[in-house]
Specification:
It is a single chain. By secondary structure, this protein is mostly beta strands. It has one domain: Methylamine Dehydrogenase, Chain H. It contains 1 helix and 33 strands. It has one helix spanning 2-21; strands spanning 35-36, 50-53, 64-66, 69-75, 81-88, 94-101, 119-120, 124-130, 134-141, 146-154, 166-168, 171-177, 182-188, 194-199, 211-213, 221-225, 229-233, 240-245, 262-264, 267-273, 279-285, 292-297, 308-310, 313-317, 322-327, 333-338, 349-351, 354-358, 363-368, 377-380, 390-392, 395-399, 403-408. It has a 5-stranded mixed β-sheet, with no helix packed on it. Strand 9 (134-141) and strand 10 form a beta hairpin.
């Protein structure tokens, strides 16, 4: 019995160690969940582990962390150059840069010329680029050498692009959804060859990244939610497993999807919004013979910031600074409290039972992920933040307007 307990504790300790030391290889980390085991490092703006002026210019894409290195995309102020930068995660020193030509293009005030987040499978980096008119997907090895590049066509949107790729089982997936066309494309990670294309109905540009839904006893599903539908694909072939069309009432403006759906309480939850303040969230039961809506909300839900899941509860920070905890099975709020006085664009992350939230002003709040609300601890970075934070190896990385901050252990 004692030996079994020891082995159980050893296995648990190993699992937690792996979880805490895991890479953050794509937008929102492992499988886009925004979640890792704790603890959350202390964030003291006066005592960062390091901070550096952002190399290569500005952008609102997030950093990723793989094998002790930080990778991020940027663009120069004149728009002539896009940059992929590799940095040492321990001290912030630049290891190499890869420049990609570009030009200026029209973007939303909160968007940028470099809003994509790279994805990495441990051997190559995959980046979505916008040159001001068209978009492309490139693969680089871990020294920055370009391995292949594929055109994704032109891109027409009032806000400019901001989508990010993901990689799974030798395929790179990218959702190209603008105001004139929409398609989900799978590329061979080694060669850049297109493996399959899934056309989608388009209405308004959506920036959501697909994620993998894995459930015991069921085949893995690639899930994508946009303005027109939530769809389950077979990852290897692009075959549609099922689809739930999102039907907008006559006279009601279809809303834009930025954050990808989440799976909680046996339901897939999709959420969307618009600059006018319109919001919509719906929970879909994918296990019905015909996928069906279980509940919906039409206010006080997020537009840009992504959702978090802990057990059977949803947690989010709204674009106007109100944080909410809701039951995944019903959508009923357990609490909704104001955390920030200003706007929020960055998505929160969940570290253990602590939620890290950051406002556009650079105010940082840590809220406990619990059914009861407790007053958050707050600090200010003194610099604006639009990019979502990342965490790996006991360190938190926050991309400000001009600075990359790192907090945590040496």
């Amino acid at each position: 019995m004692t030996r079994l307990l020891f082995l159980s504790f050893f296995a648990l300790a190993l699992t937690l160690a792996i979880a805490e030391g895991a890479d953050w290889p794509r937008f929102r980390g492992p499988n886009g969940s925004g979640t890792v085991e704790g603890p959350l490092p202390a964030i003291d703006p006066a005592k960062p582990l390091w901070k550096v002026k952002l190399p290569g210019g500005k952008g609102v894409g997030s950093p990723i962390i793989v094998d002790g290195k930080v990778y991020l995309q940027s663009a120069t102020a004149d728009g002539k150059t896009r940059t992929l930068t590799a940095m040492n995660a321990a001290d912030g020193k630049t290891l190499w840069t890869k420049e990609v030509p570009g030009d200026k293009g029209k973007t939303h005030a909160k968007n940028s010329l470099a809003s994509g987040t790279p994805a990495c499978d441990g051997t190559q980096l995959y980046c979505a680029w916008w040159d001001g008119s068209g978009v492309s997907l490139t693969a680089h090895d871990l020294t920055g050498k370009e391995k292949w590049s594929a055109s994704l066509g032109g891109y027409v949107s009032q806000h400019g692009p901001g989508f990010s790729p993901m990689v799974h089982d030798g395929l790179v997936f990218v959702n190209v959804d603008d105001d004139q066309h929409a398609e989900l494309i799978a590329f061979d990670a080694k060669t850049g060859q297109k493996k399959w294309i899934a056309p989608r109905k388009h209405v308004r540009a959506c920036y959501t990244t697909p994620f993998l839904l894995e459930r015991t006893g069921k085949a893995a599903e690639l899930i994508l939610g946009t303005t027109t539908a939530i769809t389950s694909y077979e990852p290897a072939s692009g075959k549609v497993n099922w689809e739930y069309p999102i039907v907008w009432p006559k006279g009601e403006m279809p809303l834009r999807v930025i954050g990808h759906p989440v799976y909680a309480g046996g339901l897939l939850v999709v959420y969307c919004g618009d600059g006018s303040g319109s919001r919509y969230m719906a929970a879909i039961d994918p296990d019905k013979k015909v996928p069906a809506k279980v509940w919906e909300l039409k206010k006080d839900t997020p537009y840009v910031p992504c959702l978090l899941v802990k057990n059977d509860r949803l947690f989010w920070i709204g674009d106007k600074g109100i944080a909410t905890c809701a039951e995944a099975k019903t959508g009923k709020a357990a609490w909704a409290e104001r955390v920030f006085d200003g706007d929020v664009t960055a998505s929160p992350i969940l570290v253990g039972d602590q939620i890290l939230m950051i406002s556009e002003k650079g105010d940082v709040a840590v809220v406990k992920a619990d059914k009861e609300f407790t007053e958050p601890t707050k600090v200010s970075l003194g610099e604006g933040v639009y990019a979502s934070p990342a965490i790996a190896d006991g360190r938190v990385y926050i991309r400000g307007v001009n600075t990359l901050f790192c907090f945590g252990k040496k």
